[in-house]
Design a protein that fits this description.
By secondary structure, this protein is of the alpha/beta class. Helix content is about 50%, strand content about 15%. It has a seven-stranded parallel beta sheet, with helices on both faces.
Length: about 260
């Protein structure tokens, strides 16, 4: 058990599967109290029961559709009322649909912006006064290497993650002097159900299969860095190195990596 996390209340969005599920498990295993939110009531209930019986800790859960701003706002208010202070927020929920902009439909675009950006802003904005009042806490935003290096068929998704990174970096400078930690987690492809919606054809998932990250390992690393000063967590490291090169010489990288960028 990690004394740094013992008894801490950690709100996790998108907690019913994938990285979110493992974040909850690792948080509970270290003595924290995971507060789960997602759309699937059945999965949340099962997750909560499993965590409580396995680790002997409370694990409250709240059904919420993060694409519905009014519903999400009410849910956060309810969490604050019922749970009291929240010590950490992990904005993990995210969706994608990979398509050329010209072929996209507005419903997909709107949902990506709503879940990936608006809901993250909403949760942070509502919980920030509580964290500042406590004088300590941690906000972790699950971003993406796509927020540093965009590729074809992910224009909107990459734009949402650029927004998350910009928001995270500015927020960090605002609140670190006041005792809060803010971290972005920039990931490459992760082996979750994310791609079933992002690319139903399965072609992209097959193309990047060998480089996919293990969600359990990702979650373990994120939880281990909670309540420590950590600007970014970048996985895999080689992909982050590529992003740094891209920032210096974008035209050259786009030319050299043309075929790889077209894998979606």
């Amino acid at each position: 058990m990690n004394e740094r996390l013992k008894g801490k209340k950690i709100l996790i969005t998108g907690a019913s599967s994938g990285i979110g599920q493992f974040l909850a498990i690792h948080a509970a295993s270290e003595g924290a109290v995971p507060i789960l939110t997602a759309r699937s009531e059945d999965k949340l209930e099962l997750m909560s029961e499993t965590i409580e019986s396995t680790f002997g800790t409370s694990c409250p859960w709240y059904k919420a559709d993060l694409s519905n701003d009014a519903e999400w706002k009410d849910t956060i208010d309810r969490i604050c009322y019922e749970q009291g202070s929240v010590d950490a927020l992990i904005n993990n929920a995210g969706v994608a649909v990979f398509d050329y902009v010209a072929d996209s439909n507005w419903q997909d675009i709107d949902r990506m912006v709503s879940v990936n950006v608006t809901s993250l802003f909403r949760a942070t904005h509502q919980l920030l006064p509580h964290l500042l009042q406590n004088g300590e806490g941690h906000i972790v935003n699950i971003a993406s290497q796509a927020g540093k290096m965009a590729t074809p068929k992910s224009a909107v998704y990459a734009a949402t993650k650029h927004a998350v990174l910009g928001f995270t970096n500015a927020l960090r400078m605002e609140v670190e002097p006041l005792g809060l930690h803010v971290t972005s987690v920039n990931l490459g492809p992760v082996r979750t159900n994310f791609f079933k919606q992002a690319d139903p054809s399965g072609n992209y998932e097959k193309a990047v299969d060998k480089m996919m990250l293990d969600p359990n390992k990702v979650a373990r690393i994120v939880i281990s860095r909670l309540f420590t000063k950590q600007r970014e967590i970048n996985l895999p490291s080689w992909m982050n190195s590529g992003s740094k090169v891209y920032a210096v010489a974008p035209s050259a990288v786009e030319k050299i990596m043309h075929k790889q960028f077209k894998k979606k």
